[in-house]
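Protein: Carboxypeptidase-like regulatory domain-containing protein
Species: Sphingobacterium humi
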Amino acid sequence: MKNSKHILICTLLLLGSWMYGSAQEIKGLVFDLQSSQRLSDVLIENLQNKKSVRSNADGSFTIPGQKNDYLVLHAKGYERDTAFVYQDGVSRIYLIRDKSIIRIDEVTVSRMTDSRLNMEIAKAKNNSQAVETSKTRGGLRISPSRLFGKEAKIARNSIRVLELEQEQRMVDRVFTNELILSLIKLPNDQLALFKDKYRPSYEFVKQARKEDLTAYILDAYAKFKKQ
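Structure follows.
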């Protein structure tokens, strides 16, 4: 009996150790942003634990790590990029070719990493500015071509698309399944409906404290149950 208990305890310890080890991994896929083609032999480095791996022939990779880690990706012919891992599941990371022109639309923007999104917002804001530096006369001057030109108009439209994506990501990272299920009990199909119907606004999330979010979710759930 003692031997049986000893074997059982060892088995449980090994199982617990295996489950813990499995949970400490980040799985992902690497794609080309424009073509959606999977990319092999991409070097992926975890900045937190300094571990590194290369993507497989199908673009997949597994690297030691966890949520809230930062991954740096290097691939020949592509710009270096940094990806923030903010949720469980398989991370889909899209890389941009060197010196390529990016088409700014909702689909393309949704695939960008946070660092790339910030870079594109800064670039679009710079292209939309009517004030430029005069190299010959010194100082600043108003450029009508930059104010009313096609490039400036495209840049201003791009800013709206890019900043909307940035705002949506902020809401996603606050209004999470984990937070909701820590306060209320909902099956998966009901959870999806609840999140869609009662998704908070960016303006609310931007200034909300933890207790504000808790009150918001509980109030929304009370309304949800009445339907």
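Remarks: The chain has three domains: 19-97, 101-173, 175-226.
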